[in-house]
Design a protein that fits this description.
This protein is mainly α. Helix content is about 60%, strand content about 0%. The chain has helices at about 10-30, 35-50, 50-70.
Length: about 90
């Protein structure tokens, strides 16, 4: 029996694969395939240029600013978000 050598996953390859998979899914499900493709292409470029962490940090800051200004923000997560207590 041959054993495969386990290697740590490469984050860039993981993100690239995820974006490629999401691109295909979005194009199949979208009523505006060109708009979705353009947005996903931008995400792929961000990831390939090594700017993913900066992009996520910037996005999070934008959400925080909008929430602080009491603007409506759509956030998707599988974990509950802690909300500040009302005064």
């Amino acid at each position: 029996m041959r054993h495969r050598r386990l290697e740590a996953p490469n984050p860039a390859q993981t993100i690239n694969g995820l974006i490629a998979h999401l691109s295909q899914f979005a194009l199949r499900m979208s009523s505006d395939p060109f708009g979705s493709a353009e947005a996903l292409l931008h995400l792929r470029c961000i990831a390939l240029n090594g700017d993913w962490e900066n992009f996520i940090t910037w996005t999070y800051q934008q959400y925080q600013d909008q929430l602080r200004d009491r603007q409506a923000v759509q956030i998707r997560t599988d974990e509950p978000m802690l909300l500040p207590r009302a005064a």
